[in-house]
Structures are given as structure tokens and as C-alpha cells.
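Exercise 7b. C-alpha cells:
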């Protein structure tokens, strides 16, 4: 019956993706000129990556992490144990807190989606989480950190692994999902110009490698 179960999950995920791809809530509410939701992944993915919002390149290609930031992120994930970018794209369900390109902000970088846009998009992310039930969630960038681990500076997040209640993980993981915060890979972020923060990223990728090695082991899901 495993095959039947997995094809039912695949069909449910396809329906969810169709719903999300047809969404125009932020256009209807006047926040965006057009909606072009971006996501990718498979029903059997155990790892979920949640970014902030897609950029212009992702909007054009309708695939997550396609631009320069995406290249950097893929390099990080290969350092954490994935064999290649293709391996990442097959094994990691990729989505974001808001799923449409928010446009440029006044400073020239991508605009940070407003609280209201995050709220409008939240039901999509909730449904994705409920369906995928990831064992590991990679949190990339400020909005993703805020949703799952609010009110903590980046240097208290990167390099640590947290349980679903936001407690730092000590020792061997016993519950799921595990939360792994990463900085945003965009060159616009100056956080990685500090060598102490580069060490935190190294630590985060080492810890992620250990987590990825054990995600097949039986654990409680919280
Ligand atoms: S950002 Fe989310 S809620 Fe807003 S239009 Fe895109 S998919 Fe819909």
C-alpha cells in the first residue's frame, strides 16, 4: 500500500501547488502588480527550505534560488553533504514565506514583504508544512527566522540547531522537525563580511551535515 499512499500524497501536493500557483491575493489587496508564485519540490521530500521571497530571476524562471544567491546557497549545501545542485533540487522542497517577487525596495535591493503580505501567504506555507511534514527545515533569511525563531539576532541562530519549540538542540536529535537557520546568501547581506560570522556559517554547515546523516533514523514528530 506504500505506493498507493505515496501517489495519494503526490496528487494532494499537485492540488496544493495548483492552488498556490493560481493565487492572486496580494494583487487583489493592492500589494503586487502581478502574482507569479515560485516553489518546487516533491511529496517524498523530508527536507524543506524556507526562504524570504523569490527574486526577479526566480520570478522569470518560476523556480527557486536561480540567481547569484542561489549559486551561493547551492555551494553551501554541497558543503553540508549534498552531492550536487541536482541532488539538492531533488531532495529539498523549496519554498518561501511569501511566494511572489515583492519588487525592488527604495534602496535598490528586493523589497522586504510587509507583515500583511506575510499574513496573506501564511495559509499556503501552513498547508505545505502540513503536507510535507519535513524532518529538517532550513530557514534562510530574516522572515523565515522570524516565523519560526522570532526575536533572536542572527549570531544566536546560525551555527545552532533548534527543535520545533525553538529550544537549542543539545546532543542527539530526538524530535522532528529540526530547525536549521542559515544567513541569506545574497551578497547584499554584509553579515558574512565578519570572520566570526563566517565561522558560524561553517559550524552551521557542519551541523547540518550531521543532521542530514541521521534523518532516516526513527524519531518522534512534534
Ligand atoms: S505572495 Fe503568496 S499570497 Fe501573495 S499573491 Fe503570491 S502566493 Fe498569493
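Sequence design result:
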Amino acid at each position: 500500500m506504500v505506493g498507493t499512499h505515496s501517489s495519494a500524497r503526490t496528487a494532494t501536493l499537485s492540488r496544493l501547488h495548483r492552488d498556490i500557483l493560481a493565487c492572486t491575493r496580494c494583487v487583489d489587496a493592492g500589494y503586487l502588480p502581478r502574482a507569479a508564485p515560485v516553489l518546487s519540490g516533491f511529496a517524498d521530500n523530508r527536507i524543506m527550505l524556507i526562504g524570504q521571497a523569490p527574486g526577479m530571476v526566480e520570478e522569470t524562471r518560476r523556480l527557486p534560488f536561480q540567481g547569484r544567491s542561489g549559486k551561493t546557497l547551492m555551494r553551501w549545501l554541497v558543503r553540508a553533504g549534498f552531492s550536487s545542485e541536482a541532488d539538492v533540487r531533488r531532495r529539498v522542497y523549496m519554498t518561501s514565506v511569501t511566494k511572489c517577487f515583492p519588487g525592488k525596495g527604495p534602496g535598490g535591493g528586493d523589497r522586504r514583504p510587509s507583515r500583511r503580505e506575510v499574513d496573506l501567504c501564511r495559509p499556503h506555507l501552513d498547508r505545505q508544512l502540513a503536507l510535507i511534514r519535513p524532518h529538517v527545515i532550513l530557514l534562510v533569511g530574516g522572515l523565515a527566522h522570524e516565523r519560526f525563531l522570532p526575536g533572536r539576532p542572527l549570531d544566536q541562530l546560525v551555527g545552532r540547531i533548534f527543535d520545533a519549540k525553538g529550544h537549542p538542540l543539545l546532543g542527539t536529535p530526538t524530535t522532528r522537525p529540526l530547525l536549521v537557520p542559515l544567513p541569506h546568501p545574497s551578497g547584499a547581506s554584509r553579515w558574512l563580511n565578519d570572520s566570526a560570522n563566517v565561522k558560524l556559517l561553517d559550524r552551521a554547515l557542519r551541523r547540518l551535515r550531521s543532521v542530514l546523516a541521521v534523518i532516516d533514523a526513527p524519531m518522534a514528530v512534534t
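Instructor comment: The first strand starts at residue 47 and ends at 51. The radius of gyration is 17 Å.
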